[in-house]
């Protein structure tokens, strides 16, 4: 059973089945969720929830990881970790287990398993002088065998629904056909206990952090909007990125390693250093410096981060006979171990065919975009002070389809244990994303703010409108 598209391969030993038997396999690829891994480790794979029916003696499971093992000594710092399929309370607590192989120069690790579980690969980041590993024996770490495989045919992936209690092996839809279904975000809120006693001991880096391989994806969410998204270099995460954005035009894919731990990748824009003429074109990153930090990449798929971190760039072409017909704009990448760059390739036809060719003077300036961001932050702070007002505005937005029922339900049902400020942050994120795709919707949204007849809301709405018109 080969699901390399999602970074997973499963094989069944010959002596596990007779020629007349059929095995049902349930597999769910989880790009993130309410997971807790042992201290001093980082997740370097997707999390897979795997079960079979009937229960087999063992499965050979091969999983993709994102560690460059060209240095053979690093393989000893990779470990498999498991958590029960069901748990009485969140988070899903993962424990290291013995066994498994991590061949040098390969990006897959393998292990034999006979228990239903959630399975992941983690890397040990620091080595304690004289310390031992906190491993549990295979077969003793996850006592819940469950019956997740029932109703799922061989090669069928469990659907899963974002935010569903339990998070694994549950679905409100079952699709027929072969192959593991799209990765999901297994996110659910609960209280985390942080009271742990720690003993400080001398440590040194294992090299796992420096050997982590990341992936960058360039795509155009519309002809004049380029986005650069980053994640750990795993097939399951790339599939998730493709499904998270609506009808993207995918361009370059790159892999990179960061120069330093806790570093960042930065897109460097410099009109003066271009090899090709750019007359009549302007490239405007929405945030400066235009960078993605390592902790943001590693946080993708966490409890509240369901989309990969990215940088958004607007592209403007002047309606002038002097404008060069084709743009080839190089963007060097800073903070990476090997020198590399991405190229923004656009043509006047790309923009004009989609009615996005505008005069540069008509495009929003970087200053006005910063003003809009500031005013939305003001709105976020104001709405975080009143649950009733926030609910009224969300209701109004749902009525005119500025947000849909699913987004509304997530705010007031799916995130019931989250703070008001966290829910407001998600709401504003949904609004700003909508405005990126449908700029005309900003006036509809601002009118809903003014309907509240609150002087502060009206003032914020006026400021957003004024900045948008510049």
Characteristics:
25 strands, five-stranded antiparallel sheet, about 475 residues, alpha+beta, 9 helices, ZU5 domain-containing protein, globular
Q: What is the arithmetic mean of pLDDT? A: 77
Q: Helix proportion of residues, in percent?
A: 10-25%
Extended strand count = 25
**What characterizes the major β-sheet?**
8 strands, mixed
Q: What Rg, in angstroms, do the CA atoms define?
A: 25 Å
Protein name: ZU5 domain-containing protein
Region (Disordered): 127-198
Biased composition (Basic and acidic residues): 170-184
Biased composition (Gly residues): 154-169
Topology:
Layout (H helix, E strand, L loop, with lengths): L1 E2 L4 E4 L12 E10 L1 E2 L4 E3 L3 E7 L5 E6 L13 E6 L8 E2 L1 E3 L10 E6 L3 E8 L1 E3 L6 E2 L47 E3 L16 E3 L8 E9 L2 E8 L2 H10 L4 E8 L7 E4 L13 E5 L4 E4 H6 L10 E8 L8 E9 L6 E7 H6 L12 H18 L3 H13 L5 H10 L5 H18 L3 H10 L4 H14 L2
Parallel strand pairs: 3-15, 4-9, 10-14
Antiparallel strand pairs: 1-2, 2-7, 3-6, 5-12, 6-12, 7-11, 8-10, 8-12, 13-16, 17-18, 17-19, 18-23, 20-22, 20-24, 21-23, 24-25
Helix pairs in contact: 4-7, 4-9, 8-9
In short:
This protein has 470 residues and is an alpha+beta fold. Helices cover 22% and strands 28% of the residues. Strands 3, 5, 6, 8, 10, 12, 14 and 15 form an eight-stranded mixed β-sheet that branches. The protein has a five-stranded antiparallel β-sheet with strand order 19-17-18-23-21. The protein has a four-stranded antiparallel β-sheet with strand order 1-2-7-11, with no helix packed on it.
């Amino acid at each position: 059973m080969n699901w390399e598209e999602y970074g997973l391969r499963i094989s069944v030993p010959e002596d596990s089945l007779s020629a007349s038997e059929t095995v049902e396999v349930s597999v769910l690829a989880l790009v993130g969720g309410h997971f807790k891994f042992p201290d001093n480790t980082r997740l370097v794979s997707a999390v897979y929830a795997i079960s079979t029916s009937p229960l087999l003696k063992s499965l050979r499971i091969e999983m993709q990881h994102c560690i460059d093992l060209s240095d053979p000594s690093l393989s000893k710092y990779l470990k498999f970790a498991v958590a029960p399929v069901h748990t009485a309370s969140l988070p899903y607590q993962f424990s290291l287990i013995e066994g498994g192989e991590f061949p040098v120069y390969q990006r897959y690790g393998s292990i034999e398993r006979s228990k239903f579980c959630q399975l992941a690969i983690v890397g040990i980041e620091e080595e304690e002088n004289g310390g031992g590993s906190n491993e549990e024996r295979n077969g003793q770490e996850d006592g819940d065998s469950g019956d997740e495989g029932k109703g799922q045919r061989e090669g069928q992936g469990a659907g899963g629904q974002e935010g569903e209690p339990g998070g694994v092996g549950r679905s409100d839809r079952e699709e027929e056909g072969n192959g593991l279904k799209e990765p999901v975000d297994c996110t659910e809120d609960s209280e985390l206990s942080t009271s742990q006693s720690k003993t400080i001991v001398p440590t040194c880096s294992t090299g796992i952090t420096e050997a982590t391989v990341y992936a960058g994806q360039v795509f155009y969410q519309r002809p004049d909007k380029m986005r650069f998204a980053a994640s750990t270099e795993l097939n399951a995460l790339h599939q998730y990125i493709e499904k998270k954005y609506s009808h993207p035009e995918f361009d370059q894919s790159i892999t990179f390693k960061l120069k330093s731990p806790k570093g960042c990748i930065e897109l460097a824009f410099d009109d003066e250093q271009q090899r090709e003429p750019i007359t009549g074109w302007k490239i405007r990153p929405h945030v400066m410096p235009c960078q993605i930090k390592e902790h943001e990449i590693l946080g993708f798929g966490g409890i509240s981060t369901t989309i990969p971190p990215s940088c958004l760039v607007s592209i403007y072409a002047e309606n002038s006979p002097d404008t060069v017909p084709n743009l080839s704009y190089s963007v060097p990448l800073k903070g990476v171990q090997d020198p590399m760059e991405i190229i923004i390739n656009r043509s006047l036809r790309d923009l004009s065919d989609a009615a996005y060719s505008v005069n540069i003077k008509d495009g929003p300036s970087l200053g006005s975009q910063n003003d809009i961001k500031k005013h939305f932050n003001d709105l976020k702070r104001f709405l975080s002070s009143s649950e009733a007002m926030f609910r009224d505005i969300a209701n109004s937005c749902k009525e005119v389809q500025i947000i849909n029922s699913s987004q509304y339900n997530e705010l007031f049902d799916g995130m019931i244990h989250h703070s008001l400020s966290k829910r407001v942050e998600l709401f504003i994120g949904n609004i700003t994303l909508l405005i990126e795709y449908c700029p005309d919707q900003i006036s509809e949204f601002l009118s809903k703010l003014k309907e509240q007849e609150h002087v502060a809301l009206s003032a914020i709405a006026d400021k957003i409108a004024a900045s948008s018109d510049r």
